[in-house]
Amino acid sequence: MIITWTSWMEKRISFSQTLINLYNKYYKRLVENEVEIADIRDEDRVLCIGGGSVPCTALQIARLTKAKVYVLDVDEEAVNRAREIVEKLGLKDRITVIWGSGEVVDPSDYDVIHVALQVKSKNAVLEHILKNSKRGARIIVRKPKKRRRKFYSNISSRILNLCKGYCKNYNLNCYNPNMGEVLLMVKN
Ligand SMILES: C[S@@+](CC[C@H](N)C(=O)[O-])C[C@H]1O[C@@H](n2cnc3c(N)ncnc32)[C@H](O)[C@@H]1O
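# S-adenosylmethionine complex -> structure
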């Protein structure tokens, strides 16, 4: 339910620059944390899976670094809305929005892969990424707070076992009503 509501809300927000600016503030501290945790650098190619209609994560990464950011979303309307926002902000050469699904995207050319909280089929997406991403790729996955887990697609213990030894949970250094931690995997 939260997932559907967020997607719906983002579509409404995407028509107003004022609301986009406010929504961006919600993501600011969170993405600052993630950039630090995943050590995102100017030379990185970053893939954001589940960018939404208002791709705040990508916008914040582009604000904080000179990394080339690719936003992926399975919802064609969200892709069109996100493309318009990126173009309006003059960020077309820094952020590319792609229509596609995290389960089948080719992840082999990215240094950092970011998986949004609302991404569905998280196990299939992660299994695919872990199998096909390059060595050294940093994979960052947003995790819901315990009491919110039932509203999201969650990572199974089988997947966690697969990456045991090269993944670590990080507490967020900021308040977020839905998220408690992010999981960082460094593919070996
Ligand atoms: C509502 S957004 C939230 C992301 C937020 N705007 C951000 O900047 O981090 C989540 C998006 O994930 C997309 N999504 C969900 N599962 C996906 C998958 N398996 N592959 C690609 N996109 C997915 C949805 O279509 C939705 O637009």
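# post-check
Residues 64 and 81 are 22 Å apart (CA to CA).
The chain has a mean pLDDT of 95.
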